[in-house]
Amino acid sequence: MSSLALINEFLGQPPNASSHGYQIDHILEFCHWFMGALFLGWSAFFIFVLIRFRKSRRPVADHAGVTSGISTHLEFSVVLIEAVLLLGFAIPLWAKRVNQFPPGKEAFVVHVAGQQFSWNFHLPGPDGQFGRRGVGFVSNSNPMGLDPNDPAGKDDIVGELHVPVNRPVIIELSSKDVIHDFFLPDMRIAADAIPGSLIPMWFTPIKTGTYEVICGQLCGLGHSGMKGTLVVDTPADYQAWLKERAELAGSQGAPPTGAPKAENKSPQPAASPSPSG
Ligand SMILES: [Cu+2]
């Protein structure tokens, strides 16, 4: 099937980096080849009809019409293939994405809030617990509205998005203004961020690296610049990054509970801060 990925590559699709992405790639590949075959078939038929029924050859209309059943069989085959694609592949894959979420304990949960024109990421920090959030606390320096009085939020990380590889990631998506769309092209997943709603989405990254986060909804004049970065780390690199962030927070006057002193082990060099605020 990989040789059939020619069309996906030609259209500029980046290599897949999530566990479910291959299924989406296969559907895309098949649909593109199928549509290509339909295009060639219908084009050939169109040209044939133009020549066969040209005015100079048959000036008088034939009111009996087509008597063979070939076109009916062809049409039925197309409908059948499309029904198999939809009912056999697309709907089951979609149902799995929206109904079969990984258990909360197994998954790595992240909060994401879109705003014109940036993505805000909120990670629970070394204690694994999210701090309380409130709309009243939202400011330019506190884009996620973390409650400064909640001890659980002291070690929370707001700004960068790092996740460990080979572990399901659940993203709880929201928006602070208009409808955005959290799109991870390399992970083959996207979901709309809607003001007033908390939209869950999930994927399992299977390759470490730095990936682009973009907005998939035309959300205003700065839409094209609404980008962020997702870094997928090995578990060891992720722990090292957490330690470094905890140390950084400690040096800024908000010591996280029980944060160990730095071992001076740097995280992945590709890590870059996402735009926030
Ligand atoms: Cu947007």
Question: How does this structure look, described?
Answer:
The protein has 4 helices and 10 strands; from the N terminus they run αααββββββββββα. With 277 residues, the chain is of the alpha+beta class. The protein folds into 2 domains: 6-58 and 70-99; 108-252, Immunoglobulin-like, CATH 2.60.40.420. It has a 5-stranded mixed β-sheet, with no helix packed on it. A hairpin with a 2-residue loop joins strand 1 (108-115) and strand 2. Helix 2 (21-52) runs antiparallel to helix 3. The radius of gyration is 26 Å and the shape is elongated. The protein starts with 5 loop residues before the first helix and ends in a 26-residue tail after the last helix. The structure holds copper (II) ion. Copper (II) ion is lined by residues 114, 180, 215, 217, 219, 223, 226.
